[in-house]
């Protein structure tokens, strides 16, 4: 038999304590459900599959200041040298490094400019036929570039005629899913999609179209250029260590910088999300601990205030389990009120966050999950003081204090 | 009497060490977490150039054809085209003005131990140093004549001067940027702010450039930007010359306007300039529009404070509220248990005010201790922030304002939490507790 | 010195009204020593609390040295209490974390007396109750009688003209009770007016004037000494 009515009456008499508990539970529920949701959102983002074997890839930047050599030829020699290094699977010169947060993007037209027509934005990489192998991605349709497709030039009028695109991009451009073999345009220059890769992320994971990527078979040697290298598993660190010396030994009027592993590059690009994640986790843990402590303390206080009353109840025949149940029910009642308020606050707060910041809409299961967790935590925090209350001897009722 | 209250407060805290510890811990955690996010927020939202932030303006020109969109909230392009930047730099309005862009070179020296390295540089007008109050340690900015001739001269930062020349007066010394020999004409003092407010395109908290070259070199050396370029229509760009003549936005521009009249005049000038450009057929628009924001409005407009950080500040203040509710509960328990003692004091002539003050002083002490401990926790938190994100390193620190506000916030929070229990305890009829003990 | 006319005190709870005092009349003259007796719940403590301005009263008039107490604010009452009235409680009510010296200091602090002057008075008062040597002790280190003597010293420290004692000997054995009583008589001889609530008929008889409170109303026993002796036995001791 749950004695809810007398409990409610008792609560009405010690309003402040109950209200404080209620407020704490409400705020905790509101914060934790929203924070947990943001955490989950960022976790999914951070752990997404990029399509690359990140742990085997690294990149570096080359800034050449010497003018005594032909850059195109130099880079060709570099590529050959790198591809033959022990431990290296493949290497490619490129204009941009995927996941690094820096690169180029442009709208690819379905019609040649200046004809009006839809265009689809994509991050683009310019490299030779080794690029796919270097990035460790495979074609699901079509073919790789032939060496003949690759244009190595300094003449801005020579442009590539073919390209490899991601499935996402091809489907956005050609919603029927028949993008392979279709023509598209950079300005008025046509190119044909000859290959499709299922998954391959572009330079910016936070782009609104991170999966729209195109590779052109094109190398226009610049004084500032990137090189991507894939190594045998486990060999990356060793290769990275000697790479600067190897590059400078091949030609020394240049600077090698940004020798960085792909996963580290991604980590740096995502540092602010990791930071948010960690801060929120700390916040949640400490908050839950503080609230549990608060409930614990207030229950202890309530019990010490009612020592005599408990003794009297015991003297009148209440069992220990009755006393424990009394406090459990009392706290569950408060907690239920707090959760009701907290869930409402959580939803309102979620709406505010959605409105004011670019955060996705709060999913209800997070509110429900948090409510359940808070309830369990509340009960756990009450058990110990309630058991202590049950230990109160019936004799205190007869003794005067 | 105040000292007496402190003494009483101290005894009271010591009498119930567990409760006091819990309360101090609650405040310290609340303050620690709040101060961690607030410090980063404070550093992010700080006025980077207080003495003249309201006099420095970044103009924006709407030079897109109707029907084109850019990313900004008011659809004005963030940057300027080369031709517009070049024109505004020559304009007869504005006290100081400078167009600018970020670029970079390999820096190498003859007969030096310094290995060639890549150095970020800013190509700008000589007014840059006047605009942003950067004093020269040695030498001066390049002259108008040197700018007109596009002389290969360079102003370097104190840090670069230390690295290359061991801090001595390097005016007249030479080094190579790529394959061109440059001569040092000045060494300039560092910026006092971490915020790169004059060019937030690639992150407002990147390092300042250490090297400045005349703007006129952009055309002569075919210098491209290392920052963002945004086009809105297809243009066949085959060379840097094409880019300079294009409608691509890739330069920043700042102008100093000393009073409202100057601001108004500058706005009129911009309108006139755009009308003239439209007449020549450069763009096709119904309405002409320009933007002219001062430093703080500009930073606000460019969302320099990250949303994540704003969310965190909001959440941590709510967290602080939970801590306060906790403290309030504990104080209530503690103070009510002391009601008999208060009864005695009231009987001996203490007024309600005196009793109230005694308790408020006690909770303030709690706040002070908690606040100080909170600073320590915040330092730990900021250390974690720096560890997670190097980019935030200069931001994840507490300056004087934050160090002082931590205990102030803690004390204020505690006084708010303590108000109700203190009022309750001073309000009780003293007689109630005197009869029995 | 103290005049109460038609003073009533009603306690109002949710269900019932309790009349603790009704149409209570009393005049206390300067220098008197009055013992108040009466059965449990008759209103003795309520009377004392109202006299000491610890509790407001519901109706009637209370003049203390020509000041109308009913018209005073809480702060004014606190000041008046601090200056004119000393309290002695049955439970001593010493503040446990303060040592004897500091306990006696409490009312002087509230009066805003300078430290040097405070020291002089505290030492004198502790000397008077014979505990000067124990000034640094905490209350729980003393016996009950010693604690009550400290409480008396604390009541005397402010040099009050009016001393209110609520069962000052209630928690003491008879030897200690006698010592405390002698101390009170000495204080009365030195000029203070004393009103003492007590259960102990022997102590009551030592006081020059006896008042009995029954059902919130006063019966001045000095006027009917003979009758009082009889009734005393019947009512006292409950």
From TrEMBL, chain A:
It is a multi-pass membrane protein. Keywords: Cell cycle, Cell division, Cell membrane, Membrane, Transmembrane, Transmembrane helix. The keyword Glycoprotein does not apply. The chain crosses the membrane at residues 275-303, 323-349, 364-384. Residues 25-244 form the MacB-like periplasmic core domain. Coiled coil: none annotated. It is found in: Cell membrane. One of its GO terms (cellular component) is plasma membrane. Its main location: membrane. GO terms for molecular function: transmembrane transporter activity. The keyword rRNA processing does not apply. Residues 281-394 form the ABC3 transporter permease C-terminal domain. GO terms for biological process: cell division. Belongs to the ABC-4 integral membrane protein family. This is Cell division protein FtsX. It comes from Alteromonas lipolytica.
Automatic annotation (TrEMBL), chain B:
It comes from the Bacteria. Keywords: ATP-binding, Cell membrane, Membrane, Nucleotide-binding, Transmembrane, Transmembrane helix. One of its GO terms (molecular function) is ATP binding. It comes from Alteromonas lipolytica. It is a multi-pass membrane protein. Its main location: membrane. This is ABC transporter ATP-binding protein. The chain crosses the membrane at residues 21-44, 311-335, 356-382, 402-425. It is found in: Cell membrane. Residues 20-266 form the MacB-like periplasmic core domain. GO terms for cellular component: plasma membrane. InterPro entries: ABC3_permease_C, MacB_PCD, Macrolide_Exporter_MacB. Residues 314-430 form the ABC3 transporter permease C-terminal domain. It holds the Pfam family FtsX.
From TrEMBL, chain C:
Signal peptide: none annotated. It comes from the Bacteria. Residues 2-238 form the ABC transporter domain. SUPFAM superfamilies: P-loop containing nucleoside triphosphate hydrolases. GO terms for cellular component: plasma membrane; transmembrane transporter complex. Pfam families: ABC_tran. The keyword Secreted does not apply. Keywords: ATP-binding, Nucleotide-binding, Transport. GO terms for molecular function: ATP binding; ATP hydrolysis activity; transmembrane transporter activity. Belongs to the ABC transporter superfamily. Macrolide exporter (TC 3.A.1.122) family. This is ABC transporter ATP-binding protein. It comes from Alteromonas lipolytica.
